[in-house]
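Lab channel / #folding
Pinned by the channel admin:
"Please post every new chain as: sequence first, then the structure tokens as a reply. Keep commentary short and put observations after the output so the thread stays searchable."

First post following the new format, from NK:
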Amino acid sequence: MRMAYIEEIRRMNFRLIPPDINFSNRSFTCENGAIRTGLSPVFELSNRTIDSILQARKTKPFSDLFDFIQRTRAGAKEAEHLIKAGALASIHHSAPQLLLLTKIYYKNQRKSALTKYIAADTVLQPFNDFQKIINEMEMLDFAVTNHPLTLFKDHIPLQNMTSSTKFESHKNKRIKFCGWLVTSRRVHTSNNQYMKFLTLEDQFGLCEAVLFPAVYAKYGHLIRSHGPYIVSGRVQSRLPGEANLIVEKLELVEMNKQEIESLLQKKQVKMYESVQHSAIPTGTACAAARSATGLLIRAYS
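Reply from TO:
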């Protein structure tokens, strides 16, 4: 359910920025009209380390990787997870370089001088956007860089898909829709069967999809991750603005290891163009961002 809040913030056209050891608080905060991700969503980051980060930087900002580790006593795994989440970008622009230094440092009895000597001739380029999205989904359980569907743009026949914004104009028609799983709910029917409600999201909005018992029995085993999923079915709209999709078929879009590695090797990636939203008036941007930040804080508390 938390991811639903993240994607709602994205649709409201607020810029979500990664966590950072020098700027993030424990939870989400408003920062110059954007929403800064807090430290608490980072996978397996202990409260002790979060407290250490917040306390240590009161004296002065962290200047480099070794300064950060020595002053917070963060563990190797915690340091790696923070790096992959983008949280050390303020001290070094290349996360792969930081990951290399971290591995060398912890394997050599935490000797910073030796680590610098070993890695002196190695220069690793920053992650591309595909790599960032994969790391963010792994470390934060949501993507900051861009919508996760951008990972699958070459694997989804978008020309055959109906946008979530077009559902009302396709009432009682059969369509195909591709979306990322935001949340789901399984229901026990009066006939002692199970059905499922899915909230799926493309880059333009949400789709409420309904799997009645027969369809759920056939395809329910595929619903084991965020997806994305291609669902086929009939659009039902009883009230204006409340169209949903009665699912007849569901497919899980997957990539094998070779396809993922191919994406990670790309240096230049043409990301989906963002949907054009009305700009928030400058005078109210910070107030609106603070309100949106409050939603995320409650969701992650």
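NK: The longest helix spans residues 282-299.
TO: also worth noting, The chain is about 35% helix and 20% strand.
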